[in-house]
Design a protein that fits this description.
The radius of gyration is 14 Å and the shape is globular. The protein has 140 residues and is of the alpha+beta class. The protein has helices at residues 6-12, 62-74, 80-95, 119-133; strands at residues 26-31, 38-45, 51-59. The termini are far apart. 36% of the residues are buried. It is built from four helices and three strands; from the N terminus they run αβββααα. It has a single domain, classed as Sufe protein. Chain: A, CATH 3.90.1010. The protein has a three-stranded antiparallel beta sheet, covered by helices on one side. InterPro entries: NIF_FeS_clus_asmbl_NifU_N. This is Iron-sulfur cluster assembly scaffold protein. It comes from Qipengyuania algicida. One of its GO terms (biological process) is iron-sulfur cluster assembly.
Length: 140
């Protein structure tokens, strides 16, 4: 099975459209212990606690970059509960025969399911977002 599909490679270049802005009110980060990949994520929230604007700085392989792009392109309008639910569904989808999470285009990462060493980097954007959305998230 091919890991770096054209869809994954195309997604990885989308990150340029989501720069990490120092003015983001909430920030979070996550690091994969397995490969050392990191993501710093920033966001602004609306009055209902939903993501209003988002950006990230990603240091990861193409799989991690693609996962981050998928998260970032659909994060606006999502709240902590939705991100947390999707994270749990994504973790289950990666490790067993659970249905794919309800997140646009997430199945573009399907090829990576056969590579367990890549699972942690796929989860990083959701982990960084949960950190940014936590009650004690530190401002910009």
């Amino acid at each position: 099975m091919v890991l770096y599909t054209p869809a994954i490679l195309a997604l990885s270049v989308e990150l340029a459209g989501f720069p990490l802005d120092r003015t983001f009110e909430n920030t979070g980060s996550a690091r994969s212990r397995l490969c050392g990949s990191t993501i710093q994520l920033g966001c602004n929230l609306d009055s209902g606690g939903r993501i209003q604007a988002v950006g990230a700085k990603v240091s990861a392989c193409a799989i991690g970059q693609a996962s981050a792009a998928l998260f970032l392109r659909s994060a606006v309008g999502r709240d902590r509960a939705t991100v947390e639910t999707t994270y749990s569904q994504l973790a289950a989808w990666l490790t067993d025969e659970a249905p794919s999470p309800d997140w646009p285009d997430i199945t573009k990462l399907d090829a990576a399911r056969a590579f367990p060493a890549r699972h942690p980097v796929i989860l990083l954007p959701w982990m960084a977002a949960l950190d940014a959305l936590s009650l004690d998230a530190h401002a910009g």
